[in-house]
Amino acid sequence: MRLPLPARGLLPCALMLSASAPALAAAPPLYLGADLSFTNEMEACGAKFLDHGKPADPFVVLKQHGGNLMRVRLWNDPSWTRYSTYDDVLRTITRAHAAGLQVLLDFHYADDWVDGEKQTPPAAWALMDTAGQARALHDYTRSVLDKLAAAGQLPEVVQVGNETNPALLGGAKGQPIDWARNATLLNAGISAVREASKAHDKPISVMLHIAQPENVIPWFDDATAAGVLDYDVIGISYYSKWSRYDLAGLGKVIDTAHRRYGAQVWVVETAYAFTDDHADDSTNLLGSDSALPGYPVSPKGQLKFLEDLTQTVVDNGGNGVVYWAPDWVSTKCETRWGTGSSWENAALFDEAHHNALPAFDWLGKAYTPRAK
Known about the structure:
With about 375 residues, the protein is α/β, with parallel strands linked by helices. It has a single domain (about 30-365), classed as Glycosidases (TIM Barrel, Alpha-Beta Barrel). The protein contains 8 helices and 12 strands. The strands form 3 sheets. The protein has an 8-stranded parallel β-barrel, surrounded by 5 helices. The protein has a two-stranded antiparallel sheet with strand order 2-3. A hairpin with a 2-residue loop joins strand 2 (about 50) and strand 3 (about 55). The radius of gyration is 19 Å and the shape is globular. Keywords: Glycosidase, Hydrolase, Signal. It comes from Novosphingobium pituita.
């Protein structure tokens, strides 16, 4: 997910690519879920979530409507916030597991947001050479997973980086990638996940994540040539506002990626606005300006988009859809972008009362591949 610059003053593949990878079922399930990284913060800011007008826990809402997976982001040392820290993430994972959900842990390898535009390294690693950064990345990943294991909260899936279109730990959009360095860093993170999985005797799948479908095949072709092979899931961010592809184009990429790389393919970030209204003074990131034909910006349009997107994923051999920030509702709290939320009109809870929207029903629908 790409957030705007602040204003001034403001799970598991059937075909494994390595003998060290965890063996999983020949027919992987369909993973449907949401990123609930904001829930703890929103509740602390006064948000009270509802479902059918009654008080509700977003983790339980996700499960009861048919979801089976929760995603959460982790920053290394975010001194500017007390959220998305290890302690906050442990709380989030614990809530997810208690609700009966599997967990996808998203290592950003940064102290702040990174995305398809920028990959800013943690301050503590910024001046290290490649070998030093690889050691730091490996040891940090392993340490986090070991601590989660000690707490009984190991995730089922781990993302080694978030929207790593640019080079890990320092790249920016448009800059060429030094693939020898990039592969060293990615493989260091992957190795740490494999080691933790073996040490704690629990299968943990590895995801690599790229923003927007048009970037997927070129990136993974380069990664393959550089020796980045030991992963289980390809994660794709798909937002119509920042992509040139419609759903059909997305489907072709999923089909090609699944066949070419032998991995599961998930749309691991997506969202769609249900209104153009504002509940606060923060600028809405999504709205009618990024709507797809046939999908009005309305609660029904949001639901239809998610149903059709998921059907597209399934039809093309994909195995997952994860909604981004359904819980980032408007509250009294301030952010770098204003008071409230830049996403409340694209959440899965309404603006007026934070009541669960019809789009949650997307999770409980049965999806079977249609004949081509």
